[in-house]
Amino acid sequence: MAEIINLRLARKAKARAGDKAQADSNRARHGRTAAERKATEAEAERLARTVDGARREKDSDSNGGPD
Which residue windows does the record flag with biased composition (Basic and acidic residues) (predicted)? Predict the structure, then answer.
């Protein structure tokens, strides 16, 4: 004899599975922990300081050529 299935519960279970798949996709695309965001920001700031520290300063009134 066939097993009796409650169609309402089956429909809700299918919807939950679809929602879970969508949530997993969104987590993979957008999800980053606060620690990961802070680490990325700290790395960007460190890189900016390094680049600014290595930059050669030119005189503002000089055009770079001999006068």
Answer: 33-61
